Amino acid sequence: MELLRPDSAEAAAAALGNGSKALAGGTDLVPLLREGIVRADTLVEIGGIVPRGIDGGRIGAGTTLAELEVDPQIPDALREACRLAGSPQLRAMGTIGGNLLQATRCWYWRLQFPCYLHGGDRCHARDGVHREHAIFGNERCASAHPSDVAAALVALGATLSTTRRRLPVAELYRLPTDDDRSLTTLGADELILELEVPPADASVYLKAMDRRRWAFPLVGVAAARTNGEIRIALAGVAPMPWLLPSPAALEDATPLPGTTYKIEVARALVRRALAGIGAAG
Ligand SMILES: Cc1cc2nc3c(=O)[nH]c(=O)nc-3n(C[C@H](O)[C@H](O)[C@H](O)COP(=O)(O)OP(=O)(O)OC[C@H]3O[C@@H](n4cnc5c(N)ncnc54)[C@H](O)[C@@H]3O)c2cc1C
Ligand code: SF4
Predict the structure, then answer these.
(1) What count of Cα atoms within 13 Å lies in the side-chain half-sphere of residue 208?
(2) What pLDDT is recorded for position 212?
(3) From the CA of 176, how far away is ligand 2's center (Å)?
(4) Which numbered ligand comes closest to the C-alpha of 210?
(5) pLDDT tens for residues 144-200?
(6) Does this model's pTM top 0.90?
(7) Of 71, 82, 117, 255, most Cβ neighbours within 10 A?
(8) Which-ligand-closest: CA of 134?
(9) What's the pLDDT score for residue 20?
């Protein structure tokens, strides 16, 4: 395997695609490479070239979760989502750009079952063990998006800039289709450079997990209030961060037999989150 260290974001983007992958903190990518789940001929190290740091609402994609969780410029929901993600060691290495693009934790996918997301024709989790899986958007792939951070950014109405375009964070994600099994809209040769997070009047992130620390969200709820507008986004409930138009929309969930409990958990967390930002539940 070759390791490239380009000197600009443009040169890095030009080196991507065709069997090469961007390497930031490596906390997600390196284990996937080691297990042979992701294959790459070339790694393109982006550590020194993707912006890193916080300036008001602007966050470089190379900023670590550890840097974000302690910075008072960062809205509460995002700080808390970062603080509750992984372990201190992972947060010290893991960047926000990499967090947004982390792969699914679905064990069938990680064990390389030939499932829908791997290009096959069925979702093994639907018929198998799926306690941690999705309650929304789960018709083809029932994986649960693992990023606390993405849900917080979607609730906050954040946007991101790439080497090609600017887009709302919500539009970074998609549900897989028969033609395209990808869960993101990012091109293979596109780099996330920066995020812009608008100020919120109040925001919170609440997370239900199997352990008090170092566990992925069973359900994560981010809520933000800005100029009277309330936005709620959920982690761990759909193959992508899930924007919830209203608390009543939880009744539209399509749980699998083993994930029905997540609706009750989400109801409780949404109620608490709305109280936390001073909005009626
Ligand atoms: C055991 C464990 C527990 C975890 N728990 C949680 C949790 O509870 N909540 C949570 O939200 N997260 C959790 N995570 C995820 C963790 O936060 C991410 O692994 C980390 O943030 C990824 O960042 P990285 O810089 O290491 O990315 P890398 O591993 O370097 O990259 C990840 C992916 O993103 C791509 N990439 C990285 N940066 C860019 C960029 N700027 N532009 C384009 N592509 C890019 C890489 O090519 C790769 O595909 C956990 C991870 C582990 C391993
Ligand atoms: S939930 Fe998605 S990733 Fe998991 S087995 Fe089903 S199709 Fe594959």
Answers:
(1) 19
(2) 83
(3) 10
(4) 1
(5) 999 999 999 999 999 999 999 999 999 999 999 999 999 999 999 999 999 999 999
(6) yes
(7) 82
(8) 2
(9) 96
Please check whether residue 204 is in contact with residue 223, taking contact to mean a CB–CB distance below 8 angstroms.
yes
Q: Does the CB atom of residue 141 touch ligand 2 within 6 A?
A: yes
Whether the Cβ atoms of residue 16 and residue 188 lie closer than 8 Å to each other: yes
Any ligand 2 atom below 6 A from CB of 142: yes
Q: For atom 31 of ligand 1, which residue has the closest CA?
A: 98
Which segments of the chain have a pLDDT < 70?
280-281
Supply the pLDDT for residue 281. Answer: 54
> Could you tell me if the CB of 203 is within 6 A of ligand 1?
no
Cβ atoms of 160 and 195 within 8 Å: the answer is yes
Residue among 214, 195, 226, 220 at smallest CA distance from 272: 220
**Nearest-CA neighbor of 32 among 98, 131, 87, 126?**
98
Specify the pLDDT at position 17: 84
What lies within 8 Å, CB to CB, of 41 at 6+ separation is 1, 2, 19, 20
Q: Which of 10, 20, 28 to mutate for ligand 1's pocket (most ligand atoms within 8 Å of CB)?
A: 28
Q: Which of 100, 102, 212 is the pocket-test mutation for ligand 1 (most atoms within 8 Å of CB)?
A: 102
